[in-house]
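Morning F.,

Quick status update on the modeling queue. The single chain you submitted on Monday has been processed. Sequence for confirmation:
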Amino acid sequence: MKNRLIIPTAEPFYFAGNKIGCVLVHGFTGSPKEMQGMGEFLSDSGLSVLGIRLAGHATSPQDLIRTRWTDWLASVEDGIYVLSNVCEKVFVIGLSLGGILTLISASRYPIQGAIAMSTPYGFEKEWRLKMAKPLSRFIPFIRKDQSEVDVNDQLDHVDYPQYPTRSLAEVYTATKFFQRTLKDIEIPVLIIHSKSDQTVPYRQSSVIVREITAADVQHITLEKSGHVVTEGPEKDIVYLEALKFIQSISKKIK
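Structure tokens below.
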């Protein structure tokens, strides 16, 4: 197809299944492809699965610059309501930024459970992100670390090769909002994080667990995976733990 906007293989996806639905949310500068394997596993287990594409992603970095974090949240909200039309129970599963959006969704939308993977609570060099918005006028893009690029190449990962500086400012704003809403979550939550995550330190997952005070929270620790746990060496564990969580919660809800 000529003049297509979405990067090939990075399209959103839907797998029809039973009345239990899962909205899968990818990470910052990533694409639905990083959630595809998980989606196929959940679909093979009988669930209905919708892998959304966050606004501004999987097309060009210039598109991402024009979006705001509320546009990304609206993409998740769209997915929730689309699945609600065909499912009786809806779960949201997110990776990294997708995990932030998942937990914000858990505090405000009618879903039955949330799974957040490799989710940052904050940023150690926060002062840089505070400067991202004014800095973006002079430095529109920041290149990713070579190690991160190499890992993504090994995983056949589809993402933008650089970070739009203006969009990093939106990630920072989303994170501050997310921190304030954790106390409002009342539905079951599963947190999955790897000790080998070089992008988001493992200890941040414990902070998230501690801050969710009004809900039942499960915490799964991985040992060998990197940041993109849905494509890493322990992905089968991730898929199975997510399925077990969904099935357990669904049985408790009439």
